[in-house]
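User: Predict the structure for this protein chain, please.
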Amino acid sequence: MKVTQVFDPMAEGKLPLREGASINRPPLFSGVNYQFWKIRMKIFIESLDRVIWDAIVNGPYVPKTVVDGVTINKPWSEWSDYESKKAQFDCVAKNIITSALNLDEFFRVSQCSSAKEMCDILEVTHEGTSDVKKARKHALIKKYELFRMQAGETIADVQKRFTHIVNHLIGLGKIFDKEELNIKVLKCLDRS
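Assistant: Here is the predicted structure, written as structure tokens:
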């Protein structure tokens, strides 16, 4: 009897997305390439429910009540079904985030009380403070302004390098007009 060996690229480690390459699992973050992971996580979470992403961006929903003219947090026992369901989105978000982290990153955020706090800690750790982001943005703007096609570079290589710079700038809050980007690419191409 002849045994046929089946090629399994996943077992060979040949595929670039060994973990998290699924619509059912969040993308795995191992502490490397945070910008890429952050974009993929946003897409993944919004695909489940945009209200979960809202809980990350705006923080957990905490029902309020007014007592003697003062707004206070409503006791948990008095929450309506709607309020309980809305508050649950933060718990879902925390579960998704912690399921997407390796051990080191998990312990970095494991004591956080909300999904927003987890994301804020990961962002500052891997992207830096607002001053660091501002400096990085200025450096990338300079790189964008000086962008030129390099000798021996193919159009595909130019496009890949350009897209990388632009995407990082967009991630740091820079807004581009599509026409501006097209003109920039055309101007930087080598005419020879």
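The longest helix spans residues 81-99.
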